[in-house]
Structures are given as C-alpha cells and as structure tokens.
Design a protein that fits this description.
With 145 residues, this protein is an alpha/beta fold. It has one domain (12-144): Hypothetical Protein Ychn, Chain: A (3-Layer(aba) Sandwich), CATH 3.40.1260.10. It is built from seven helices and five strands, in the order E-H-E-H-H-H-E-H-H-E-H-E. The N and C termini lie far apart (49 Å).
Length: 145
C-alpha cells in the first residue's frame, strides 16, 4: 500500500493595492496576472483608493498622480495607441489562467464611504484586516503598490 503524497502547495503571491491611480493599479494587474500564469496563488488585497476606484466603476480610467501630470497625456495616448489591455480585462484573464483573487478590506469600504452592495459583485470577497493578514502570512512574495 502506497502512502499518498501530500498536495503540492503553490507559492502564494500577495499584492496590497492601496493607490487608486491607473499606473499603480495597472502594475498590480500586470504583475498579478503574470504571477497567476506562472502558477502562483495570487491575492490582490484592495485598500483605500483602490477600493474607491473599483466601486466607482473607474478601474480602467487612465489617470496619474499630480506629480506626473506633465507627461500624463502623452503616456495615456501611447497606452491607447498600443492597445494596452484594460485593468478589468487583465483581472478577468488572470482568473482564467490561474489562481487570482481580488479581496477588499472591509474597513476600507467604511473609510472610503463605499457600500458593500457597490463592491460585492466586483470582488471575490470582502474581509477584515485580521483575515487578510492571515492569508498573507505565508506569502512567498508580498508587494505594496
């Protein structure tokens, strides 16, 4: 009788997405999608401004922080011309190619005046910070964007 081998645990890749500007959310999407395609369990935890932007339905709105306003129009035009995928498209593709979950912090909803109903269908889960930290505890990689 052979002993079954324990299930292989996939490396966990965690992204804390705090910023709400397009450039930051785009990085969270591309890095997360790539990690999912590489076979990692990806968790994107939305905090503050990322929650607000998703709740408002503006995840794909191309905007940049005021520090980069001198070049924002040029970069936005280049991204449109090069047909760069939208953030929502990358999130959907990441879910198709691998393990990719988008989770909102429940306190962030309250702080950003976002109703649960406005976000519930746009995320995999809404969790409190203790559960989020438990999920992130054994991550191979953790990023704060």
């Amino acid at each position: 009788m052979t002993t079954p081998s324990p299930p292989v645990k996939k490396p966990k890749f965690v992204i804390f997405a705090h910023g709400g500007t397009y450039d930051k959310l785009y990085q969270a999407a591309t890095i997360g999608m790539t990690a999912a395609a590489m076979g990692k369990d990806v968790y994107v935890f939305l905090m503050f401004w990322a929650i607000k932007k998703l709740a408002m339905g503006e995840l794909d709105k191309i905007d940049f922080s005021p520090a980069y306003e001198d070049h924002a129009e040029e970069v936005a035009r280049a991204m449109i011309e090069k047909k760069v995928p939208k953030i929502t498209e990358m999130f959907a593709e990441a879910k198709q190619v691998g393990s990719f979950k988008v989770i909102a912090c429940s306190a962030g909803l309250e702080y950003m005046s976002v109703k649960y109903e406005d976000l519930a269908t746009k995320v995999d889960e809404v969790l409190g910070l203790p559960l989020i930290l438990n999920l992130a505890a054994d991550a191979e990689t953790t990023l704060f964007i």
